[in-house]
Design goal:
The protein is α+β, with helices and mostly antiparallel strands. The protein is 39% helix and 21% strand. It is built from 24 helices and 34 strands. The protein has a six-stranded antiparallel sheet. Strands 22-23-24-21-18-25 form a six-stranded mixed sheet. A five-stranded mixed sheet has the order 7-8-11-10-9. The chain starts with 21 loop residues before the first strand and ends in an 8-residue tail after the last helix.
Amino acid sequence: MGVIKRLLFSGDLLNTPRHRNMFLDMEENIHIHFRDLRLELSRGEFEDIVAVFTRQSRELLALIRENEYQDGMLPNANQEDVRIWTESRLRHDVKYNPRKLSLEECGDGYHLHYRNYKILIDPDEFRALVQAFKDIDLDTPYASAYHEVEDLLRANEIDFMLSAGNQPGKVLAISVAKHHLAKVRDIFGYIGFAKEKRDKEVRYIGPRLTVVVTDDVQYTARDYKRINGLSRTERLVDFLSRNSAVINPDELNLIKCQVLDLYSALVSGKSLHVETDPQLWLYARTSQQVVFPYNVTPHGGKQDAASLYKAWSTLLAGLDLTFVKPTKEPFATTAQQELRKKVDEFLAREVASCIAVDKVHLMGSAKRGDMGRYHTPFVHGRLAKLGSDVDILVEINPAHEQDLSGHWHLYSAQSSHGCPVYHMGQIPFADDWGEWQARYPHIQFTEHLVDAYVFLPSRGNHQDRDAFLKKFGAQCVYDRSRDGITYRGKDEERIAGIITEQYGFSNVIVEKMIVSTENALYKIFADNQSLILKLFKVSGNYSRSRVAEHVAYEKKLVSQLKERGIPTAGVLPSQDEHVVVNGFPALLFERIPGTAQQRPEYPLETIGPALARIHGVQMEQPLALDEAFTFDDICMIWLPQFSSYLKNTLPGREIAEAFKALIPLVNRYNPGEYRARMYANSPCVHNHGDVTPKNLIISEQGQVFFFDFNNAYFGPRMADIIDGAFEFSLAEKYIHLADFSRFDGFLAAYDAQTTLTPAEHEDLEKWIELMGCIKFTKEIRVLLERPKEKLRRRRALAIAEFVLSRTGPNLASAA
């Protein structure tokens, strides 16, 4: 780079480059076209360029990789410790138009011919360029005053810092990087400053200013790039406001990446001493770095992150910068073909395999075959996309709108096209993108996102759908009536074969359900029936070795209850007495229509009586069932386990205090004789064993269906009643809505259907103590397995507090 003696003009008057082409052609001579520049060459000149470029490009690439050069992070990399070019002399002189200077107005703009170069200039830019030349005064004196000299040094991109002895207006004292000392000498020589060397410094003396230069050996060129970048900051808001209409999309998305990385760090729980108000952020354009100033008050957590995101989103929306795509580079043909194969495989596996799907239409880049990588991640909202989306429209069967796959993630409930938008997964990015993850470690980058418009017949307009598909030239890549059944994987396909063999169905569709259970559940659609297949992998309140035995017990229990008129999910008969799937005992259940109401408020006035009827039909006439699984077996598992968990110090102080307060109660119920007296006072029936909101469905007519008897046992009905009262008070995962006023409400609703005996009323507090200790111990088991799970901790403390408030001293610390 040459030495700048005087900066005649500098400003951002150009628009975004119109052309992105680079190509070679040969007409009257050889042309190299690069964006808006055309270079005319003779054969000899072209051969010179090819020879030099072939040799030096390999050398350059090796040095770039060795030094981990990054655009924007280290501008002017040739000022690093090594030079990344080797000088070569061209053997041929300029052949075409060696002395020509020509300005032409043409159909595509203005052409500036300078020797064998031609530059294409936009008309508006050309007018601005002409005005800039008019305003130039070639007789302006060279820099001589303090700020003039400082600006000249910055224009020459000298790596320097102000040092001791600096006196603004009189003495400019600077510490200069060693690699720029010679260039500084040339600058002051050109502008007429006299040189005077002293001990460890050099003085350049001008008519109005003395410049004192010392040699800096502490900082590297990389350090100076960062220092100089930060020294030329402005408010980010001001930069975006001033440049919103002309900002480079790649630069804007780099800015967004830095903000998203900060947001993601705060969400993750990091506590950072930074300003989170976008109005206070700075921007260093030379390094394209956002500076988040220090704040003495640390910020962290989801609430601070949400405030930041809201303010930042509002700012971008006001400047119309919310949705700005960076430059995209299409993949080569072979890569496009390979990617399309992956797209087709994904759509068959993750989309077409869903029973609800009638058709899948492919649109956008994947359909056109111009998928690509973004030069910088495309930040849209909280997403940072590395490559093109796979855009699809999915038509849903009217009879299965409630059967959308649990693997799909609802992104927007309503789009501008009248369809909800689902993110269905990602297709891996072929290129290495570790650089972006290293630069922005807190961002969860999105590769090729499968972005789906889901057309629901009950909510959408068919004419609008067809117009939308026509507009984007969509291609139907799956039609169930044409292509038949597809499966998500080999597991589903194998299960379909077992269902066909054991139950005599045809055209079996299998979908794995995403549910919070250690067992495995599958939706089964066959011969116009909706069913649920359950694979029993774990035990409930009994030994793991007895899983198969309990499955047989559950099958008989459900069947006999259903014969007595109890509304529940019936078990379908199979060819073999015991069905095994993937090595686990399995049952195929009817699928109950209705709504699972896990969140309060609960219709206890119907739920309590529904449980009472399960018990009541047995009290009227006992079921013909083995009584091998008993409530006392459960007590003998969990009461001793309490003492075992008591020795564990992991859960912390609050849990330890709850343990200490509950010890007398656990000790009271450990003797079997004490429990036996309670059992004698309550009718014994086959209990559901897990009376929770998640295990019941309410039909449109308000009928309550209890299902999932995986924890069923024989014992006093009070165990089921108190279990239900606890669970409907705790509100499942909605622990923030826990309300123990529902406890007595549940008991009253049950009692209204089937009256509790006087002895049961008398033993009520004892049952609260016993069941509370067992439920507390179960929560501790899960907490010890997953110590960071806050839900289990809060449930355990809530149970302990309620038990002690009813039967003993308050546990104030567990509030």
